[in-house]
Amino acid sequence: MTGASQDPVLEVGAELPPLTVPVTRTLIVAGAIASRDYQDVHHDPELARAKGSPDVFMNILTTNGLVGRYITDHFGPAAVLRRVAIRLGVPNYPGDTMVLSGTVTEVDGDTVRIGVRGENRLGTHVTGTVTLTVAPAPPAGAPVPPATPAPPSGSGS
Amino acid sequence: MLSERQEGELGARLKEFEGRAAAVAGVGKDPVNAPMIRHWCEAMGDTCPAYTGPGAIAPPTMLQAWTMAGLAGQAGPPGRTEAFGELLALLDAAGCTSVVATDCEQEYARPLRPGDVVTFDTVIESVSDRKTTRLGTGYFVTTRTDVRVGTELAGTHRFRILKYAPTAGKSRENTPKHRRPRPVVNRDNAGFWEGVARGRLLIQRCTGCGTLRHPWLPGCNACGCLEWDTVEAGGGGTVFSYVVMHHPPFPAFDPPYAVALVELAEGVRMVGNVVGVPYDKVRIGMPVEAEFRRYGTDAGDEGDGDGPFVLPVFRAREGS
Q: Do A77 and B62 count as a contact with CB atoms less than 8 A apart?
């Protein structure tokens, strides 16, 4: 369905459109430096190998930032992140692709909880929960008013 | 390796660090500022308008970045206590020299804006018992950092690292190729493996009552008779049951792969890999045909002096 990202469905079980993140060497290094993390395993392949890793790998702060971005991309700038809790699994190595997906797990008034998962070709890179505040929801059971003036029917957008 | 007693003593010493401060009155190296926010957003590909222009806030997930020591801070983040250094040194001395972050939990109390000067205090919340993980054996250390602007709490940041002793030869690219384990051949099953080496699947048959059996055993389960001969299996069978092996990864195997219990047409069951179909297409009842694969012929497999060997595998039949 088009326009889903502009009109997030806020029901438990609703799925967010996935976000595909190409895990480039540039992203890994840029994310590490932007988060002021100069651990060599995040930018120096030779030293990473000496420590038993096949290559450099993404740091947890970058994963955290990407998870936050995934949620605010979807809910827009008015949404406020309250809590981001993540656990790492397999590493994000250069050349891989991570697909972030999210499912609404709880809706309590204007507070929404999303279960987030990031998969790459090795398996699950990250699992987590994001809690955010969105624009106040209508009372339970009330008809849902359109967020923007309703487009003419059959607009096909 | 530590003895059990040494391990117990270390565990007790590590527990004493719980509740102690890891950083006291640390001050962020830079106030919250627009250039660092912009660099972060560029790296993350984050175009959220809340992070730019007048009234911009910092991306909440940057919380930890404002507390980081950076390239100049080899001694650790600002405000780091001796206690935390001692804890890390104790783990280093126990061989747990590698570190990896496993968990990050952040709660945001108020947004950070350019100009905010961040201060923080970190406490060692817990040190786990000794754990064996995919990476190696070690200890999880959990810290909690309260980040403030003035006296106001901006957020809390709970961080868990694993300090571990890397498993020897962990790097797959730096270690010689692992050889597939050879079958264990003993005087009870030698006949079976001799058959396999010649491309024949031999089933034991009790000469007392005629019952077929597999795996090979000295006596008959049905009548107890110790005399036997063999019949050659036709090779056809069906998948009676199976598992898909994902974890843990064994050297020389490439998970995920399917391991099936195949019921041969003759009625006995035999364990083997299913080939010719992806692991997730294996199904109970799937018809299969035995074939023989030679292992130990790769260059990397040479040198153990035992030479190549043959294993039976089961190929999914066409159209199944």
A: no
Residue numbers of B between 166 and 225 with CB closer than 8 Å to A = 166-167, 170-174
Q: Is residue B96 within 8 Å of residue B77, measured between CB atoms?
A: no
| Residue position matching structure tokens 């000794």 | B130
pLDDT given at position A1:
39
The per-residue b/e assignment along A32-61, b for 16 or more CB within 10 angstroms, e otherwise, is: bbbbbbbbebbbeeeebbebbbbbbbbbbb
CA distance A134 to chain B (A): 14
Which contiguous run of DSSP H or E holds residue A66? helix A60-75
Supply A49's token pair: 């190998």
Distance (Å, whole) CA B79 – CA B94: 25
CA distance B4 to B10: 10
Burial B245-275 (b: 16+ CB within 10 A, else e): beeeeeeeeeeebbbbebbbebebebebbbe
Dist CA B42 CA A31 (whole Å) = 9
CA-based nearest residue in chain B for residue A79: B50
Give the architecture (CATH level 2) of A9-133.
Roll (3.10)
Best mutation target among B30, B32, B40, B164 (most A Cβ atoms within 10 Å) is B40
Superfamily of segment(s) B4-166:
Hotdog Thioesterase (3.10.129.10)
A28 in B contact zone (CB under 8 Å):
no
Report the C-alpha gap between B255 and B311 in whole angstroms. 18
In this structure, what DSSP letter does residue A108 have? E
pLDDT above 70 for A151: no
What the block records as the tokens of A130 is 């994001």
User: What are B283's two structure tokens?
Assistant: 């199904």
Q: Where are the domains of chain A?
A: 9-133
Each residue of B16-66: pLDDT tens digit?
999 999 988 899 999 999 999 999 999 999 999 999 999 999 999 999 999
In 3D, which of A96, A23, A83 has the Cα closest to residue B63? A83
Domain boundaries, chain B: 4-166, 190-316
Strands B228-232 and A80-88, bridge-based pairing? unpaired
